[in-house]
Amino acid sequence: MAQLDGPRFGPLSRGPAQQLVVVLHGLGADGQDLIALAPHWARALPDAAFVAPDAPEPCDMGPYGRQWFSLQDRRPAAMAAGARAARGALDAFLEAELARLSLPGSALALAGFSQGCMMALYAGLRRAVPPAAILGYSGALVAPETLAAEATGRPPVLLVHGEADEVVPAAASRAAESALRAAGIPVQALYRPGLAHGIDEAGIEAGAQALKAAFAGPALA
């Protein structure tokens, strides 16, 4: 199994980490692509450690970057198998990071963009200890048909998607929103007019507020 690693940021407070936010990049990128979100979100969570691991495989659709699984075959069954296979390496990384920081599983939040959103939703909703929140940008829900049987908890989910996205249409997040609600998972969705396949300032701010709200409750056990 591939051992993941990637760039890190924080805590901004320079004290011991109280939360861990793991940010998952999209197809053909790497962890450097999304660690830039950390300084923005750290203002809302100054005691959080952030890490953006590189996906386990070289991208098979371009000359550079990484992938969580191949998208050469985009049939639902193939994508579900790919996400399932990648989940092992991701879960091992999450457990190692939590242990390194001496944090419980409840101190974790997951965020992802595009294929990283697919992985954040797939892995996050199936973790033994559900994360405090899942943030999904410009992605989709893989294997919605197995969610009711396999979901281990109902963490709050934020979905953000550009209405002008031609890579992953906004309809994918709308379908994810419906499936998550049907499974009893609380969802907040933000659809951005005119935004293509990317993350804008409104999406970043929505993420900061979602993270702040997720960790605003009683002290973690």
From TrEMBL:
Residue intervals of the Phospholipase/carboxylesterase/thioesterase domain: 14-206
Signal peptide: none
Family annotation (Pfam families): Abhydrolase_2
GO MF, one example: hydrolase activity
Residue ranges crossing the lipid bilayer per the database entry: none
Alphabetical keyword list: Hydrolase
SUPFAM superfamilies per the UniProt record, alphabetical: alpha/beta-Hydrolases
InterPro entries the UniProt entry points to: AB_hydrolase_fold, LYPA1-2/EST-like, PLipase/COase/thioEstase
Source domain of life: Bacteria
Family: Belongs to the AB hydrolase superfamily. AB hydrolase 2 family.
PANTHER family xrefs: LYSOPHOSPHOLIPASE-LIKE PROTEIN 1 (PTHR10655:SF17), LYSOPHOSPHOLIPASE-RELATED (PTHR10655)
Protein name: Phospholipase
Species in which this protein is naturally found: Roseicella frigidaeris
